[in-house]
């Protein structure tokens, strides 16, 4: 799931979801999440479903009646982390045999029944499209049976389930707008673990943002594996749009229209989105971004490689030249737009020349930041089945280091370009290093820290003059707010 690397926040891996006390709750749920933001969002849906079943969340694993791990399959290391966690939970299960343990998410989907065979302490295995079935599966387990549902759905978007959202800062939230992906990039597990691409009803998206607005949230990130491909025509998979009725086609809502609706209806809320796929990013999205002040000027635009031949092997469906055209268009329509990337070093068969193409592409774009990885072969993907993972580990490591060094250089240049200017910043919380400082981000998603001034609080939009920077952080002073 390379395109969603952005939201693999290392500091949140293994975080336990906590919700407000539930009335009449008789059982305790320990729900731990791994992987990308999509999983953290899904955990909020799971909490909502189980709250209806009389569960109350706990962050004390020892007092839980039910432990659920929402897992990630992106790399072998991610899966190993979950296996180690399960081993550690074994000791608790020995002391408390009535404790039930379940595995959710991508790893559940990838391994299916194998999970129950390999990890004997696991009682429940549930894939990302089957969370509504959790109450039934729990009954199965109570009756002494192993419970598994890894059915992928063409329709499921959990549209009307209001996620329980209390882990974050109360100011910024993620709102899922699409699920699954049809792109079949050869290195990616998403099409197999999260199924066909489908879009969520725009009314339910607007309703969720309305609820967030009423609860005091100031920024939403519209989330999906490929948000630019969003297309609502009454429900069902994107690939079936061609069979839609004339009325459905005429009234369909695409991503630019959705963005426009959200921006117009919530002028005081900042809007971000992720992830964008170059081949699906249309001009109307860029024009909508340019039109609305409250749509942030930042695009996470994974490219994965700068070489057309590698892009072909990855089945990315665009060339190096087409990517440059898109970058030129973005710079023209939204001149102050920040860009970030995902990059894979050492994909199957990558030559030195192809690697040099990646470096020269980075020189052309000069990204604000990037998420960079050495290629890791994932079982089940087309690359695993049909291509040799033949770039030696040492070479992968060296190429990755060259990519990282170049990105550090570009990030430093971009940060310096923000110095000497005033930025609108949403205060998101205390600076980690010093609680006398606020932490927030500008529209380009750059982190800014600045001394607190009395009368300001989390959730305020303030003007901050940036006077200095480190490699990753802008340092500023609040301006007179009138
Ligand atoms: S666009 Fe490609 S990398 Fe991204 S989720 Fe879809 S298949 Fe995976």
TrEMBL record:
Residues 416-480 form the TRAM domain. Residues 27-143 form the MTTase N-terminal domain. [4Fe-4S] cluster 2 binds at residues 181, 185, 188. One of its GO terms (molecular function) is metal ion binding. It catalyses: N(6)-dimethylallyladenosine(37) in tRNA + (sulfur carrier)-SH + AH2 + 2 S-adenosyl-L-methionine = 2-methylsulfanyl-N(6)-dimethylallyladenosine(37) in tRNA + (sulfur carrier)-H + 5'-deoxyadenosine + L-methionine + A + S-adenosyl-L-homocysteine + 2 H(+). One of its GO terms (cellular component) is cytosol. Belongs to the methylthiotransferase family. MiaB subfamily. This is tRNA-2-methylthio-N(6)-dimethylallyladenosine synthase. It comes from Weeksella virosa (strain ATCC 43766 / DSM 16922 / JCM 21250 / CCUG 30538 / CDC 9751 / IAM 14551 / NBRC 16016 / NCTC 11634 / CL345/78).
